[in-house]
Specification:
The protein has 374 residues and is an alpha/beta fold. The chain is 38% helix and 20% strand. The strands form 3 sheets. A 6-stranded mixed β-sheet has the order 3-4-5-6-9-10, with helices on both faces. A 5-stranded parallel β-sheet has the order 2-1-11-12-13, with helices on both faces. A hairpin with a 2-residue loop joins strand 4 and strand 5. Helix 8 packs parallel to helix 10. The longest helix has 22 residues.
Length: 374
Amino acid sequence: MRVLIAPDKFKGTLSAVEAASAISEGVLRVYPEAVTTVLPMADGGEGTVDAAVAAGFEERLNAVVGPILRPTGAVWAVQGSRAVIETAQASGLLLTEPTPENALRAHSYGCGQLIAAALDAGATEIVLGLGGSAMTDGGTGALRALGLKLLDVNGAIVPLGGGSLAEVVAIDASGLDPRLAGVRFRIAVDVDNPLYGPRGAAQVFAAQKGADADGVELLDTGLRNLASLLRESYGWDSDVAGAGAAGGFPASFLALSGGLIGEASIESGAELVAEFLGLREKLAETDLVITGEGSVDEQSLAGKTPIGVARAAQALGVPVVLVAGQLSVSFEALTELGVVAAASAAESARSAELAMAEPERYLRQATENALNGI
């Protein structure tokens, strides 16, 4: 039996790589002769670089400026002319303290430094995985690392960070790295929020990054101003679903697409990762696929990573086993996706707390339980 093991991370307990290893051990306890292939997955956010490295991409480490100007090391991945970069690595919320001041100061400059490193490595296609970000700067920090200038009414360069966007009156792209004109940016998102407004980047997500009420309003005003300037300078229509992801990171890239940037597009993170990891090709060579993540619930059915894996497998007639940390969706709903068995670590441990205390052990047990139930 050929078994493909393709889980996402079990947030708070196991990375996708660790989860895949534990599931593999569970498979071999039930089917000692099975040939297992591990393919850690991701939804385009945190863990995307790890998934790429596990699939054969080369891991790179660069020193960059963190979200509030402290130096940090950031990992990215490259394979041929394709690079994979996460905003969380260079500009993540975990790299700073979520305070009102930092919410205004945080920027994406370090992400731009990683893009520059990818250009130096010869990349012409760059996957940008968004998620876990500290900034609300509309992606301007990243492009400023690549030569963009934002100017105030006096012609001076404004400080980095979303809190300064309201002061910008002109965008100077004359110094932008010319190599960007030959690059395709594929921006992986898992939200459909617009850039600004009641459902925009600031109003919905800035409080999680430390912003107080006044800060949220200032950041939203700044994003509105940025959208206006991008419209005037490049004709960009800011009413784009997903443009509010990661503090509006896609906005500046989308606005410059087709000119100063070769191409930039927003894509479903889970589907994009599945594509560049070769999920479909690997499913075509397997007899059974096992997928899962920390919590599978009704919201997961909207398109979280395990559901995407299940749908891809179903299309090829490959049976699916689902294992989770916690499972709170009916088995009937899962069977419609080609799932033939499912189990949870919490059920195996008889409590969620114990399952989280010994995640590998109970994920192995959940895998055994699910396979024995086929």
